[in-house]
Predict the structure.
Amino acid sequence: MSLFIHDHTILKVRRHPLTFFMQIIIFLILLSLPSLLDLGLKIIDYPIPDDEIVQYFRKLIGTIYYLYIFLFILYSFFDYFLDVWIVTDRYIIDIEQRALFFRSIVKQEIIRIQDVTAEVRGIIPTLFNYGDVHIQTAGALERIVFHKVPNPNGVVSVVLKTLEEQQKKMGAASPMGH
């Protein structure tokens, strides 16, 4: 289904799946940290007080720690799945989840595009072919950035081709275009 009645969706992009996988790796490391710390203290035979108050505070701190880790992975999940960039035959739409309860939607006409560039930085993005696509439009709006999308050069090609087709349509529809 198209976002706008007369628009045709040409491209719909999300972040590269590897970026979410990296978040899961960090999540798993953070999840195992308390157990590794506990094991390390047992190995070096560090005396840990075993009275009731110390146990209570350890449980309290552990609960808070795991709650923050859960919120971290929940936020990462929402950020990955709710960030989407859409190219229609008339618009570029940038939908980004900026916080748990804050979403930003920027819609810009394709005809207003002045510059489109792809940027791939680092070894892993180069190997897995993902990066950022920067779209500069005419006007005072900030530029639109597609973050860590697969095949950024292909996305640039699609956007430029769509812009070219829209410019041809506008030229053909304009009496000055003849």
